[in-house]
Design brief:
InterPro entries: Peptidase_A8
Shape: elongated
Strand content: 5-15%
Largest sheet: 4 strands, antiparallel
Strand order of the largest sheet: 1-2-3-4
Protein name: Peptidase A8
Number of domains: 1
Number of helices: 7
Oligomer: single chain
Keywords: Membrane, Transmembrane, Transmembrane helix
Distance between the termini: 12 Å
Radius of gyration: 18 Å
Transmembrane segments: 5-26, 57-79, 91-114, 126-147
């Protein structure tokens, strides 16, 4: 599990380094990659999450921090439980964990350090996003693929409930 935490940490660092670079050197730049499809357009999103942005409401920072910490704990427990019930480590499960944890970590740093997300990739006229959003979506997609994999369907300890596993100390093996 240390490798997954390291990978997530490296992804978080990459996201933050890109944002630092954009903030210092490209904040006022606009580039069209594919006309009417994809563009580079930095935008400081202070609504703190996707739902709040769509509803145009500002979320309290405290609420977002509690939500992000809760999400990180939930993703970690989910991953550890799935690892416990599975015969061997699965690429899709590990990828989903790394990407989801990286996305949550990036979101946490965005809220705490930036006061919101520095989004910079425009897609059509729909929305502007950043690497964090790519990480989160790749994480959820990987976990969905995991749920449809042979490895998930042939779990060895699936008879042990999550509640029992939690009460036994969340052991991996």
């Amino acid at each position: 599990m240390k490798k997954q935490w390291l990978i997530a940490g490296l992804l978080i660092a990459l996201d933050q380094l890109v944002k630092i670079f954009i903030w210092n050197f490209a904040l006022e730049k606009r580039l069209i990659f594919i006309p009417n499809v994809m563009r580079f357009e930095p935008f400081q999103n202070t609504n703190l999450n996707w739902f709040a942005s769509m509803a145009n409401i500002v979320m309290p920072i405290f609420f977002m921090v509690v939500f992000q910490l809760s999400a990180a704990i939930a993703v970690t427990l989910f991953y550890r439980y799935q690892r416990y019930t599975s015969e061997k480590t699965n690429l899709w499960l590990s990828l989903g964990f790394c990407m989801a944890l990286a996305g949550i970590g990036c979101s946490f740093l965005d809220v705490v350090l930036w006061g919101g997300s520095l989004d910079y990739i425009g897609l059509f006229d729909w929305y502007i996003f950043d690497m964090k959003d790519v990480f989160l979506n790749a994480g959820w997609i990987s976990i969905l693929i995991w749920f449809n994999s042979k490895a998930y369907k042939s779990r060895k300890n699936e008879s042990i409930s999550f509640k029992t596993w939690m009460s036994n100390g969340c052991k991996l093996s």
